[in-house]
Amino acid sequence: xxxxxxxxxxxxxxxxxxxxxxxxxxxxxxxxxxxxxxxxxxxxxxxxxxxxxxxxxxxxxxxxxxxxxxxxxxxxxxxxxxxxxxxxxxxxxxxxxxxxxxxxxxxxxxxxxxxxxxxxxxxxxxxxxxxxxxxxxxxxxxxxxxxxxxxxxxxxxxxxxxxxxxxxxxxxxxxxxxxxxxxxxxxxxxxxx
Length: 193
Description:
Elements: E1 14-20, E2 36-37, E3 40-41, H1 42-47, E4 56-61, H2 65-68, E5 74-77, H3 85-95, E6 100-105, H4 115-122, E7 129-134, E8 137-145, H5 148-157, H6 164-168, E9 173-176, H7 187-191
Parallel strand pairs: 1-4, 1-6, 4-5, 7-9
Antiparallel strand pairs: 2-3, 6-8, 7-8
């Protein structure tokens, strides 16, 4: 067999979707994307590097639409806030105009430079999507095909809300990417750095 080289998809083939619809319950009900570290908000810190290479950036948020509009081409309300990341990802897929969606949470503290390449390299021709894991901790960082939205909508109709159903029941791949799980769950975690 002739060895095949891996073909990476270029960022211009993706819509970048930002998940910002959570309640921020563990962070004092604050919008985690607006939390400040090192003089910049988490969303600003995350999106200043390489986000302009995507076909489009969209944000699905609970509130503060005006703020997210500074970093996204389109902003829309999470149609059912507090329903978990599966609902937000489904909303992003419904708004995606490209074949592929790259998803990041708004509270990502650090973002490894190669995160997108690592995920797309692992996605086979028949895969609906691939998500990142950090030491076994699943994250909402992932890449999906736009048509995966149909499968996610069915999972939501069946009452599923968490990411775990993607891996346990729907067969989405998981790729280990060290430090991709470095997000802000609580204010104390943000202040500890």
